[in-house]
Task: inverse folding
């Protein structure tokens, strides 16, 4: 492999490795508050990954990630409170399936129609879906109306109770790591190459014979599945799920996480969650009423002047473009 | 039966008639040139065949099947492949990945997800790159190639789909004389397995590679037939060739 090619592939694995090692060691030095904080970052990191998959890789602007997240969260909460099933081996798969199912319904409405949908149509369609379901949840007493579903029991694994703290932390980290690895493999697979083509020139891909709407639909459903897993975990970590976890505010927040960290890199969206939540926390300590203004300006500066996000400072354009199906070395590399 | 038949194809854009009752036939293993002055409707006819535009009226058949209103994806599956006038390689993908993307287009999404054909397609990608003189820079982003090389890459992608009919819209535009000659040499061998419908302003290039010609003027077919015969046609000379 040529030096330039090798260097171009280097930054993301380094960032990934450093963050993984840090994540594994952090509970040894963090107090209870920061362990809870970081666990929430991992869970929100999952929903940010789900958005990065659709936007950063397939070019689908979805403002509906909170819908999949919240619907899965509510379903998991109902399973725990009404059916009294708290096993993590039931809750997490069930939440994933709800996310998958809801995203499939949304895809059928906004992506899989007869005509190729525009980016604006998908963005507004998903935003509307998110808004409508939030309003419905606020008015439906069965799911707690404005108050949502509070006092969720703890997740269990057999007879073991998964309490918030280091145990939940490592479980969330393990799930995040598994989803991350699966997405890394997917986005570097031949399927990922099609997504890269879709993002760059959808019409060109269609002329090659790809049924582009099907690829978009599949990717959208996978993102719904991941957002569903996040939603299922979130309620049990926070002990509560409410209408705010279904609506446009969270959906928009997820978009910002990914744009701030850097779309199309996976790791950028997780960084985005961590940094935005960290800034929010410290800014709110410094200026309890006006901190969102400062945060908003900061996000605006990054989005305007660094469209590749913060990860763009260390990741080259070539590495962002990605390396897909080439096995082994080509002739030119053998010669070099 | 002809491979491609366009019968009475009309295409209007508001009050503008771009194609007026155009007929076109391309036979198997035939190189067919489509020429005419600027604005004569050549590219519009090519787009109607490829599916980038839908004909307002008339029929287009490929191997006897009516494709007049089919979307581009279905036409690609029926055996059509197109190289656009404005180079449309995927600039932020490597040269290798551009060709792989074209080669794997008939695989199912499940196989692609599992990267099942990654190893089997590798040799074909490299063969294609060798053939189009791009094998020495597979990792380079396509956007960094010269204009001529991008044109070759796009032809390579179009051919990688193993079409029965290749549509080329001004493939030598912006190329040096050497690159034009090389392009002709690259295209010649494909006649064994596919036909070619080519829009091109360089008449010498067209005369060298095409068996048959159709001449368009103001959206209408002025003449059609063997290249030499069309060249001698008085109407063609008046409408087009004499002005060149």
Result:
């Amino acid at each position: 492999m040529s030096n330039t090619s090798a260097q171009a592939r280097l930054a993301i694995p380094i960032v990934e490795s450093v963050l993984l090692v840090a994540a594994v060691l952090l509970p040894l030095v963090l107090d209870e508050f920061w362990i809870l904080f970081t666990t929430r970052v991992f869970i929100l990191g999952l929903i940010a990954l789900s958005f990065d998959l659709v936007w950063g890789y397939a070019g689908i602007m979805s403002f509906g990630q909170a819908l999949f997240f919240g619907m899965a969260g509510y379903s998991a909460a109902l399973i725990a409170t009404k059916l009294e099933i708290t096993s993590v081996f039931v809750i997490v798969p069930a939440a994933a399936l709800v996310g998958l199912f809801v995203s499939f319904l949304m895809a059928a409405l906004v992506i899989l129609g007869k005509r190729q949908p525009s980016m604006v149509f998908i963005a507004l369609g998903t935003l509307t879906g998110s808004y409508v379901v939030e309003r419905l949840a606020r008015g439906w007493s069965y799911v707690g109306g404005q108050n949502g579903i509070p006092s969720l029991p703890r997740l269990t694994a057999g007879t073991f109770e998964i309490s918030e703290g280091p145990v939940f932390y490592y479980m969330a980290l393990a799930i995040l790591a598994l989803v991350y690895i699966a997405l890394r493999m997917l986005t570097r697979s031949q399927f990922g190459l099609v997504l890269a083509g879709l993002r760059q020139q959808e019409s060109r891909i269609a002329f090659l014979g790809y049924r582009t709407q099907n690829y978009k639909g599949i990717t959208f459903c996978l993102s719904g599945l991941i957002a569903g897993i996040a939603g299922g975990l979130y309620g049990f970590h926070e002990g509560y799920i409410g209408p705010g976890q279904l609506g446009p505010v969270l959906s928009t927040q997820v978009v910002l996480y990914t744009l701030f960290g850097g779309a199309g890199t996976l790791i950028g969206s997780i960084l985005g969650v961590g940094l935005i939540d960290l800034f929010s926390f410290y800014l709110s300590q410094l200026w309890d009423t006006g901190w969102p203004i400062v945060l908003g300006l900061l996000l605006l500066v990054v989005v305007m002047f660094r469209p590749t996000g913060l990860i763009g400072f260390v990741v080259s354009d070539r590495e962002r473009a990605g390396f897909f199906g080439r096995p082994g070395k080509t002739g030119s590399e053998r010669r070099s | 039966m002809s491979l491609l038949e366009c019968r009475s194809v009309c295409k209007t854009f508001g009050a503008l008639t771009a194609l007026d009752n155009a007929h076109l036939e391309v036979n198997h293993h035939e190189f067919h040139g489509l020429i005419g002055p600027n604005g004569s409707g050549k590219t519009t006819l090519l787009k109607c065949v490829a599916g980038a535009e839908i004909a307002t009226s008339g029929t287009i058949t490929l191997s006897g099947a009516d494709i007049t209103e089919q979307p581009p994806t279905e036409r690609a599956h029926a055996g059509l492949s197109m190289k656009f006038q404005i180079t449309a390689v995927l600039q932020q993908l490597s040269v290798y990945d551009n060709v792989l993307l074209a080669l794997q287009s008939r695989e199912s999404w499940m196989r692609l997800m599992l990267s099942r054909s990654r190893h089997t397609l590798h040799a074909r990608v490299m063969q294609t790159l060798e053939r189009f003189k791009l094998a020495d820079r597979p990792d380079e982003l396509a956007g960094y190639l010269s204009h001529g090389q991008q044109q070759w890459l796009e032809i390579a992608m179009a051919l990688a789909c193993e079409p029965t009919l290749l549509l080329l819209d001004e493939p030598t535009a912006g190329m040096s004389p050497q690159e034009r000659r090389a392009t002709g040499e690259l295209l010649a061998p494909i006649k064994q397995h596919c036909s070619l419908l080519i829009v091109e302003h360089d008449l010498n290039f067209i005369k060298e590679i095409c068996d048959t010609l159709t001449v368009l003027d103001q959206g209408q077919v002025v003449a059609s037939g063997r290249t030499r015969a069309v060249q001698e046609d008085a109407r063609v000379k008046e409408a087009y060739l004499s002005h060149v």
Observations:
- The mean pLDDT of chain B is 89.
- The longest strand of chain B covers residues 16-26.
- The CA atoms of residues 110 and 143 of chain B lie 29 Å apart.
- Chain B touches chain A through 48 residues (CB under 8 Å).
